[in-house]
């Protein structure tokens, strides 16, 4: 599946898939436009995520060509939309709905809907040069795409209010401290750190990882501990019937000398 190109023929989003580790790196590559979410880039991102999954990726790392991770919506296209508003979230939804582990390596400012791209991923890693700046209300536009829900889920109501309602922004180190990011790494170590996490995720039994991700995402909607117990018990019992489980336990027993 070919990615949607820029009108001038450039690829706005690139894909690098390691067939051995099954880790895909999806990179926003429109630095001249600060990786803004123009419709062409949005479509290219959705296409690249779909292509990565079609080619067997079991983990996806999202990053960007510096200096800006993503400047959010394109001002020109916000005033003169090229597509319905819902369609401008195609790239975000492709990441949010991906059945595999997704990791955002945020290596520069993420502004407005650019924050959404990071929030769509399971794990966010940041460099010190990262900056998370929602900024929707500065433009008089309401946050969209589940931004407030995902932001509050990561950092709690007070921090979400400070960021979304009061115009605060945080760098990579602060993002890690408040839970918006999992960790902050020096710039040169950021992508290697994301790749290490992705390779470990991709090296686990794919079907079990996917089911665990589904249960994890459903957990906020379960308000009864007994129901949570049953949901996870059912999934755990299923996992113990898989060939991967039996093979890995047998391998562990061999490593322990048959005990």
Describe the structure.
The structure is a single chain. The chain has eleven helices and nine strands. The chain has 259 residues and is α/β, with parallel strands linked by helices. The chain folds into two domains: 13-202, 2-enoyl-CoA Hydratase, Chain A, domain 1 (Alpha-Beta Complex); 206-255. A six-stranded mixed β-sheet has the order 1-2-3-4-6-9, sandwiched between helices. The chain has a three-stranded mixed β-sheet with strand order 5-7-8. A hairpin with a 4-residue loop joins strand 1 and strand 2 (23-28). Helix 1 (39-54) runs parallel beside helix 3 and helix 5 (147-155) crosses helix 6. The mean pLDDT is 94.
What's the layout of helices and strands?
Layout: E1 13-18, E2 23-28, H1 39-54, E3 59-64, H2 75-79, H3 90-96, E4 101-106, E5 109-111, H4 113-119, E6 123-126, E7 131-133, H5 147-155, H6 157-164, E8 170-171, H7 172-178, E9 183-184, H8 187-202, H9 206-218, H10 225-239, H11 243-255
Parallel strand pairs: 2-3, 3-4, 4-6, 5-7, 6-9
Antiparallel strand pairs: 1-2, 7-8
Helix pairs in contact: 1-3, 4-5, 5-6, 9-10
Quick synopsis:
This protein is an alpha/beta fold. Helix 1 (39-54) links the parallel strand 2 (23-28) and strand 3 (59-64). The chain is 45% helix and 15% strand.
Highest CATH level, the class of the largest domain: Alpha Beta
C-alpha Rg (nearest Å): 19 Å
CATH superfamily of the largest domain: 2-enoyl-CoA Hydratase, Chain A, domain 1
CATH fold label of the largest domain: 2-enoyl-CoA Hydratase, Chain A, domain 1
Could you say which structural class the secondary elements and strand pairing correspond to? alpha/beta
Mean pLDDT: 94
* Oligomeric form: single chain
Fraction of residues in β-strands: 5-15%
Tally of discrete structural domains: 2
Strand order of the largest sheet: 1-2-3-4-6-9
